[in-house]
Write a structure and sequence with these properties.
The structure is a homodimer of 268-residue chains. Chain A is an alpha+beta fold. Chain A is built from eight helices and eleven strands. Chain A binds a DNA duplex (30 and 30 nucleotides) through residues 188-189, 219-221, 229-236, 238-239, 251.
Chain lengths: 268, 268
DNA sequence: CGGGCGGGTTGATATACGTCATATGGAAAG
DNA sequence: CTTTCCATATGACGTATATCAACCCGCCCG
């Protein structure tokens, strides 16, 4: 099975990475110290554009989109992008860093609903409701684009390809969730972890980063929460994978030693 | 907690039921023999309109929507509305009967992704893809409205409230799925079944049917599949609920004897 | 420097649910 | 009417994962 078939998460990631330090038209090095710097970026020279909303647009249309996008200061680890219960106003795109989306139920128990990496869109859960249903926090220092939803809606009525693309994004969120549902109701702990790792690997590869060596932005507890497992089980699976020479793990640093085997486990 | 908070499924159902036998303008009794009869129905006099797509529209707009809706002959039990892999062309609304949505993975294992009752929309999973990802079959004799998606998209650019409503529908599908995810990863077998039953109860009540006595349209196997349980476990939970005087079960006929207790179990 | 603390690992034990087997009853088929 | 078959039910048993507990390690903070 080709990598592309690991759809439930991979569809979010497609290509490229955040805008790395590079020369601007005047030859001055931008963002050399802070890769999360925001103010100098716009949709035209953001290298995420190929997988973010602009991918559906022509140059002049990107310009119009660009004008409604808001880019704040970089967020620190554990800073919220939005809280459940807040009025829903915008959707968001990750430019750099990583974000965790989650709900908290009546008893205060958290449920992680997704991890978002550079180039991915989040916050769509709020669209059907006056207030946000989920919360979102930065898992590490992150640069986020905010796209006011009412402006985007307006723009969508004027640019059919944007409307279509947006429908597609939402429907993919649905199929992603459904593949997670399948996993939770049918797959073992090992299969779930293998699926998560191959997914992150593929999303990294598409951003031209290593698909075999990377740093997990989330804790074991977050992984377990997301996959319906306890921390202990996650930890044990990681240990077992190491004993089997599938992985090499050093805290959050992961090296995938046998991607084929990992894929065949994930592949249920 | 009010019934309304059982969001993960209830949001689909809101009010009313299929069009029952009634007088047409000329005083002739319509559809007396077949409640699933299609040809005489249009969006204006369909009593599902209050929770279906027309709910967002003015009279003249409903007319325009009505003109793009296709209503075929009633479907029999086990007939497919669409198969996974078929080109995606339309979304669908249930006018009467019940529908099961499901995926089949590479090994041929089925995963139920949802049950759809009268007034509810399904088939949105296909939007982001050229072909349908899921399949959908009638669980019992059913009348279905087909809404060609390209026409709906077109109409949406002309009627902003329709676009907005459609965004809402999709986002609710997302939050529904996420609440199912939470249930699968955190709740016991009893809690899951209790949640399903209270959900169906609430959806029936909103259609002015009994919320305490109803017929389950799906098999125990489908329930188990949907909730991540085996048939045996589903059966045992039903038996246990009967011993505790929470339910009275006769094959698919359900009577809820203690809705409060059921709610408090569901309510995790 | 020492203590506390959060995150991670590992082991021993408990348990909810799955698996396998068998039974029943109604519906469809012949 | 008999046979077959499918859905449902119920019991015995096994097991994957949760739970509980102890421990380690790096980090922050006094």
């Amino acid at each position: 099975m080709p990598t592309d078939d690991i759809r439930w998460i991979d569809d979010r990631g497609r290509d490229n990475d955040y805008n790395p330090p590079e020369l601007n038209p005047r030859g001055i090095i931008m963002e050399a110290k802070c890769p999360h710097s925001a103010t100098t970026v716009n949709c035209n020279d953001c290298r995420m554009s190929a997988l973010c909303l602009p991918m559906a647009l022509q140059a002049d249309e990107i310009d119009r989109l660009n004008r409604i996008v808001e880019r704040g200061r970089p967020l620190q680890r554990n800073e919220y992008i939005y809280h459940a219960g807040e009025p829903f106003k915008s959707i968001y795109a990750v430019r750099s860093g990583a974000v965790k989306g989650f709900t908290v139920n009546d008893e205060g128990v958290e449920q992680v609903t997704g991890f978002y990496l550079p180039g991915e869109i989040f916050g769509m859960d709020g669209i059907g409701h006056p207030n946000h249903i989920n919360s979102a926090v930065a898992l590490e220092t992150a640069a986020i684009c905010e796209i006011p939803f009412s402006r985007l809606e307006e723009l969508s009525t004027q640019i059919p390809s944007l409307q279509r693309h947006f429908f597609r994004l939402m429907s993919r969120e649905i199929t992603n969730d459904q593949q997670l549902i399948t996993m939770l109701s049918k797959n073992s702990a090992e299969e779930r972890i293998a699926t998560l790792l191959t997914s992150i690997s593929a999303r990294n590869a598409r951003r031209k980063l290593s698909g075999s060596r990377f740093r997990l932005p989330m804790s074991r507890a977050d992984i377990g929460n997301y996959m319906g497992l306890t921390v202990e089980t996650v930890s044990r699976v990681f240990s077992r994978f190491q004993k089997q020479d599938i992985l090499s793990v050093d805290k959050k640093e992961i090296e995938i030693l046998d991607l084929d085997r990992l894929r065949s486990m994930a592949n249920t």
